[in-house]
UniProtKB/TrEMBL annotation:
It comes from Salipiger profundus. Gene3D superfamilies: 2,3-Dihydroxybiphenyl 1,2-Dioxygenase, domain 1 (3.10.180.10). Its EC number is 5.1.99.1. It catalyses: (R)-methylmalonyl-CoA = (S)-methylmalonyl-CoA. Keywords: Cobalt, Isomerase, Metal-binding. It comes from the Bacteria. GO terms for biological process: L-methylmalonyl-CoA metabolic process. SUPFAM superfamilies: Glyoxalase/Bleomycin resistance protein/Dihydroxybiphenyl dioxygenase. GO terms for molecular function: metal ion binding; methylmalonyl-CoA epimerase activity. Belongs to the methylmalonyl-CoA epimerase family. This is methylmalonyl-CoA epimerase.
Length: 134
């Protein structure tokens, strides 16, 4: 069911510093910040040869990233995103297996303009899992 690793997300307390670190210290190809108010985040994608890094910074009230940074003030790995062909079929199979699909269970449009869903970290070895239909 899951396919390629689409991205690994890192929550950051200082987006400018993280951009500079990846661009200058790591020589990475860093995209421009993209506000995603529907998700309460500003995202910056870093293109790697085999996947992407997604830097996440809180946007607006009630951002899930703000809550994460309260617990992890230096930032840290926030989620992994796997690609799926059919996000509804994946969701239904996961729900049948007893996994918790976050939010109202309906896919939202993510940063790539594709439907995404999130699965509770407690059901996946302490790792927040995002699925993106490609
Ligand atoms: C533009 C979209 C973009 C894209 O790629 O397209 C994105 O990726 S947007 C990313 C931001 N959106 C989300 O993260 C949505 C899904 N997240 C949530 O619904 C919440 O953040 C949730 C439910 C994962 C955590 O909620 P909360 O912050 O309120 O924390 P809790 O205390 O309720 O957490 C319960 C339990 O889980 C642990 N936890 C929290 N966040 C994570 C995490 N990122 N990875 C691993 N574990 C996490 C938390 O520590 C609690 O554990 P406990 O042992 O009970 O203390
Ligand atoms: Co993501």
């Amino acid at each position: 069911m899951i396919g390629r690793l689409n991205h690994v997300a890192i929550a950051v307390p200082d987006l400018g510093a993280a951009i500079a670190q990846y661009r200058d210290a790591l020589g990475a190809n860093v995209g421009d910040p993209q506000d995603e108010p529907d998700h309460g985040v500003t995202v910056v994608f870093i293109e790697l040869p085999n996947t992407k890094i997604e830097l996440l910074y809180p946007l607006g009230e009630g951002s899930p990233i703000a809550a994460f940074l309260e617990k992890n003030p230096s930032g840290g790995m926030h989620h992994v995103c796997y690609e799926v062909d059919d996000i509804i079929a994946a969701r239904d199979r996961l729900k049948d297996s007893g996994a918790r699909v976050l939010g109202d269970g309906e896919p939202k449009i993510g940063a790539h303009g594709k439907p995404v869903l999130f699965l509770h970290p407690k059901d996946f070895q302490g790792t927040l899992v995002e699925l993106e239909q490609v």
